[in-house]
Design brief:
heterodimer; A: alpha/beta; six-stranded mixed beta sheet; four-stranded antiparallel beta sheet; 32% helix; B: ABC transporter involved in vitamin B12 uptake, BtuC; 13 helices; binds adenosine-5'-diphosphate; binds magnesium ion
């Protein structure tokens, strides 16, 4: 286990061509934090995630993961990623739930990457955590959106990650499934000690579960604990706009 | 009659080569079809045509020049797609037609070898020479082994490239590998099935398997089975009725596809009915 910040971002600036997307963003989070990143559409949330995941090159500033500069970082299996819903996968793709979850084990294996009995046990365990064990032979495209997201979480869990990063995982999922989903994340955070970064534009719901909040709008507008956020001016602005903002002490 | 036919050396050669090649094609096809890259086989076949014409012109074994052309072009297509911000299908179109144009151009200035060139277009599994048989089989076997060894990585990449990259999977290397394997397979297949029809062996068994497969492993296995069945059936029917072999194999593939498509439609109807009866 690395001591100190699990993720630290310093003076991060990112442009797509001439357009500035992120402007001098700095913040850090510690192990076991549950960070909610909120901000309107197009505010650069996904871009920030892609930088953290090494999917986009750092142009200016620096990112450290588990204490290591991202340019040298290679322990990607410790970072689980659940991408924005239906971002790229084809609903007719012939993959069973079990096969999708097994993908999470591929990167950490040596060539020729055979699956073992032990792997089967890991897959079963992760499916159980997200309560999807009944569906292991179902085709992924035949599940509901919320079920698919749980499968993708199970996939991220197989590699035993220290940090889980989720990009708007509950878009288009009904309210009840959403709360169950956030409860699951809360459990993973509290019981399995997994650091969670959750992106959402649904500020109302997530403030109920997170311990830290970052507000992004090209610049970092706010970063602090859940309680600090609730007593901040920004939260008051949201409060008047969105009646369901829940601010109570943990 | 078919057993009797198998006693002929040329039939044995044809059958074995056809089987190995159809397995390589149908395994690759599953990945290519799902990556919306189905027509790359066609593009690489056009490219090989240019290579063959050049080989005949300068008197090098056309197999080798075609292979060189196809592999170079595979890299060219990837580079164009990446650097020039051209879509995959457009970059295939540009490179393949440049090479096809070259082939036609060379054929028109050097009149002598048009007939020979045609045999590459349509293939002739029964007239293929022993060195070519061995070369084809070895190449196709290499392709099959490489696919099987990389199947899990290729599966992840095909399912969702972004997550695969985020997990540290070498996506660029695997994409290059897949297209180079396709180039090798196309060239290994050209004498058997012909450049005009090789793409059918890549696309059709895979498309048929995707109609009914519920998981990825089954999709690969079914695709290979469909490829094999089409070769055995196609070869037998062509032998009995004296039809053109490559055309018959492709028609078999098409029939298998139609059959799987119907099975899927019937299944869907049954599901709908059972849902309705429950309401
Ligand atoms: N590949 C891209 N090329 C150019 N601009 C992009 C690209 N991806 C995103 N953008 C732009 O970057 C901005 C931030 O996008 P994004 O990070 O996806 O926002 P969010 O996730 O907060 O909705 C948007 O204005 C978007 O148009
Ligand atoms: Mg986004």
């Amino acid at each position: 286990m690395v001591k100190g910040d699990i993720l630290s971002i310093k003076n991060l600036t990112f442009n797509y061509g001439a357009e500035k997307i992120l402007d001098n963003v700095s913040f850090s989070i510690q192990r076991k934090d549950f960070l909610g990143i909120i901000g309107p559409n197009g505010s650069g949330k996904t871009t920030l995630l892609k930088l953290i995941l090494g999917l986009l090159p750092v142009q200016k500033g620096s990112i450290k993961l588990l204490g290591q500069d991202i340019k040298k970082f290679n322990q990607w299996s410790k970072i689980g990623y659940v991408q924005q819903k239906a971002a790229s996968f084809d609903p007719y793709f012939p993959a069973s739930v079990k096969e999708v979850v097994s993908m999470g084990l591929i990167a950490g294996k040596r060539f020729p990457k055979l699956m073992t009995k032990q792997d089967d046990a890991i897959i079963d365990k992760c499916l159980k955590i997200v309560n999807m064990q009944k569906y292991e032979n179902r085709k992924i495209g035949e599940l509901s959106g919320g079920q698919q997201q749980r499968v993708f979480i199970a996939r991220a869990l197989t590699a035993n990650p220290e940090m889980l990063i989720l990009d708007e995982p509950t878009t288009g999922v009904d309210q009840e499934t959403q709360s169950r989903f956030y409860k699951l994340l809360e459990n993973l955070n509290k019981e399995e000690n997994i650091t969670v970064i959750l992106i959402s534009h649904d500020i109302g719901t997530i403030t109920h579960y997170v311990t830290k909040v970052a507000c992004l709008n090209q610049k970092l507008v706010f970063h602090g604990t859940h309680d600090e956020f609730c007593s901040s001016k920004i939260a008051q602005q949201f409060l008047t706009r969105e009646k369901h903002l829940i601010c109570h002490s943990h | 009659m078919i057993i009797e036919a198998l006693q002929y050396g040329f039939m044995q050669k044809a059958l074995i080569t056809g089987l190995v090649i159809s397995i390589a094609c149908s395994l690759l096809g599953v990945f290519l079809v799902l990556q919306r890259y189905a027509l790359i086989g066609d593009g690489l076949a056009h490219i090989s045509f240019g290579g063959i014409a050049v080989g005949m012109l300068v008197n090098i074994m056309p197999f080798l020049t075609a292979m060189g052309f196809a592999i170079l072009a595979a890299f060219g297509i990837l580079k164009l797609r990446e650097k020039a911000k051209i879509h995959g299908d457009t970059s295939i179109g540009i490179i393949s037609h440049a090479s096809l144009g070259l082939g036609v151009f060379i054929a028109s200035i050097a009149h002598g070898f048009n007939v020979n060139l045609l045999s590459y277009l349509f293939g002739n599994i029964l007239a293929i020479s022993t060195p070519e048989v061995i070369l084809s089989i070895v190449l196709a076997l290499i392709v099959i082994v490489v696919i099987i060894l990389n199947y899990r990585n290729l599966f992840y990449l095909t399912f969702d490239e972004e997550s695969a990259r985020a997990a540290g999977i070498k996506a660029d290397f695997l994409s290059t590998l897949l297209i180079v394997l396709t180039a090798i397979t196309v060239v290994a297949s050209m004498r058997v099935i012909g450049l005009l029809l090789v793409s059918a062996l890549i696309i059709m068994p895979a498309a048929a398997a995707l109609q009914i497969a519920n998981n990825f492993r089954n999709a690969l296995i079914m695709s290979a089975i469909f490829g094999v069945v089409s070769v055995i059936a196609g070869l037998s029917i062509a032998y009995i009725f004296d039809f053109a072999v490559s055309g018959t194999i492709v028609l078999m593939n098409f029939m298998i596809f139609l059959l799987m498509f119907s099975i899927r439609s019937i299944r869907k109807q049954m599901v709908l009915k059972s849902v309705k009866s429950q309401m």
